[in-house]
Amino acid sequence: MIKAENVTKSYGSTQVLKGVSLEIEDGEFTVILGASGSGKSTLLNILSGLEKFDGGNVECCAQCLNDLNDAQLTLFRKKHVGYVFQQYYLLSHLSVDANVKLGADLAQNKNYKDIIKAVGLGEKLSRKPFALSGGEQQRVCIARALAKEPDVLFLDEPTGALDENTGREILNYISQLQKEKGFTAVMVTHNSNIAEMAEKVIRMNSGKIVEIYKNENCKSAYEIGW
What we know:
Helix content: 25-40%
């Protein structure tokens, strides 16, 4: 479970999070929804241990993040967390296989090629990022994150730089892999249509959670609007 209680965060004189509280169950697909500047990416970074917070409490994967120093947070992220961002952050001189292996090595996962096949890149193991489309590069990022076998996959606008068809394809891969492998998925987006895919939606505005609800009938990536 991921649990936050009255979390606050400021950058200088600007308060970005104003007492945020939430719970995300193990194996749940949750979307954090909000406009630019609502605090959703900051919240994602705090829940995942990328950023420290000023006040409140955060628990993730049975660890209290309040109590962890920098070295312990690094170990926490290495052991429990996978990340997919809007930007791909692939190493340009490495092949698909080598980029994904970087994640797999963190978990000593020797079966990582199964993940590459699962995202539809089994025939492109030797390709470098420059020889891949944007959607294919994002699939490499997903495979790299999942190759380390995380308990939680955090995704920050993973389709933000993609066209509609490619975006739907990426969302479909994420949804199918989450169901098959049972990891917890937490995705930040400004797109309310994407929120229709999630089991739980946490809507933010101006640094606060203004609504939390569950979708009784989650839609697929090919059923939502865009």
